[in-house]
Amino acid sequence: MSILDVKNLQVSYGGIQAVKGIDFHINKGELVTLIGANGAGKTTTLKTLVGMVKIAGGSINFDGKDTTSIATHDFVRNGLVMVPEGRGVFAKLTVEENLQMGGYYRNDRDGIARDIAHVYELFPRLKERYKQLAGTLSGGEQQMVAMGRAIISKPKLLLLDEPSMGLAPLIVEKIFEIIQMVAAEGVTMLLVEQNAKLALQVSQRGYVMESGKISMSGPAKELLDDERVRNAYLGG
Amino acid sequence: MTMDTNKKLAVFIASAIVLAVLPFVVGSTLGNSWVRTIDFALLYVMLALGLNIVVGFAGLLDLGFIAFYAVGAYSFALLGSPHFDIHLPFYISIPLGAGLAAMFGLLLGTPVLKLKGDYLAIVTLGFGEIIRIFMNNLNAPVNITNGPQGINLIDPIQVGGVSLGKAIEVFGFNLNPVHMYYYVFLFLTVVVVIMVYRLQHSRIGRAWVAMREDSIAAAAMGLNIRNIKLLAFALGALSGGVAGGLFATFQGFISPESFGLLESIMILAMVVLGGMGHIPGVILGAVVLTIAPEILRDVIGPLQMKAFGKMLVDPENARMLLFGVAMVVMMLVRPEGMWPSKRRAAEFKDAKKG
Hints:
The complex is a heterodimer.
Chain A: E1 2-13, E2 16-27, E3 31-36, H1 42-49, E4 57-62, E5 65-66, H2 75-78, E6 80-83, H3 95-102, H4 109-122, H5 124-128, H6 139-152, E7 157-161, H7 169-184, E8 189-193, H8 196-202, E9 205-210, E10 213-219, H9 220-225, H10 227-233
Parallel strand pairs in A: 3-8, 3-9, 6-7, 7-8
Antiparallel strand pairs in A: 1-2, 1-4, 4-5, 9-10
Chain B: H1 2-29, H2 32-57, H3 66-79, E1 80-81, E2 86-87, H4 90-109, H5 117-137, E3 158-159, E4 162-163, E5 168-170, E6 173-175, H6 177-200, H7 203-213, H8 215-220, H9 225-251, H10 261-274, H11 279-308, H12 315-333, H13 342-353
GO molecular function (chain A): ATP binding
Domain ABC transporter (chain A): 4-236
Pfam families (chain A): ABC_tran (PF00005)
């Protein structure tokens, strides 16, 4: 059963069409990745999903609802959560306060406390530093905060925008471990990445985006073995 | 742990005793005019804490905060003076004035939702002036505010049939109005301190910091930026309105002159010099900036007479000059304020590095 169904999505910035009619879907429990070069329209697509960019045409159906007219801050309530590019961790809030922000829309104080405790179990590192300002953490730890915060928002679908961006290779691997841990929690995810190899390795399915269109799609394993994908994105 | 709580309790009791006897100690040693200054310091603490919600917590630069003080003061004056011959008790007119001020907060907040930084500062500055000019001119065709002459003979607060406007004798103690108002102000200041403290550590407080830092990520967390901004304006204005009402009844007279731009800037200076976003810092800033000019007033004149044999600079001007120098020095040496929060200090450290 698909949780997200996008049909013929089109987005324009001024006169330039950034997304030229794409179709994709995500099933419950899946980890799907959207790969592509810089400027292919990946981030635009994500932003459209959470209402930060207006759509020019097509339809988005999330969890049985048309979401094209919902305000950004209402998406969380509907179960759609995004971890923005650059992680969007609140540097001047402590680790614990960041996690509490994940429960901002929730009213069950006890449930939030339980979920925060659960995140600390997942990432013991965060428990050690719960009082520290998030801005003083390393890149990997900040990603843990961002992911932990997202878990506490109880998403039906979690959108990850370039989680590995600007991080050292060693940390990037750590981050993909974190993504797999969260996937193992049963969270459905859409991962947008430039690091195609790692992204495809952890995903079940993938879409390849090229100048505003989806050029290829299929099981992640097949894409990894595909000649064209290898040449274009995996460095031969 | 118990040591810590014991220590806290001791500090609490000690400061409670100091605050309780302060007006009598000061009154009998330095004179009642100083008790009056302390009363004003409490009013400014309330104002500065209100502005701190907007500037310190939510990060919205507001240069017209005095407008809410004016709204509170005029509400009280119109509802408790011979001007309209309405005499509502203070426990109705102060909440009414505070509520009206909060509504004006929303009124200001709505059009400036999309503005940031300099633009926001300019619009709020204009708003403050608009309110003042309205007060100045609303005496014709229908006389509402009595224009530049202001409103006189504003009712003093009455508690259980006792007017705080006249001195009374209790157990041989001579209680002056400045003493009695001190306790009223102190009580309401404590209420405001508790309110802002609770706010800061609530989810709303966290939301303000989050919004200040990254409004996109904050919206992605389900935070309605519009509402949370308006809430900051309204709650800040609320506390300004309470202070305004108290000011009106304490002075017995108000006129538009009391609500000029300079006042707005003074309150902002209290917040910034004290330590933006840090409640103890803001209180300190308000107290220092209320009391220091009074001390200077007593010092500058005699000092000039001694040094030069005549007055070279008018004490009032010299005060502003010294005040300006102090501001510049402060911004160079300690831009985060006298007593900053850890969070704010970290921000300034980052800024220096970057």
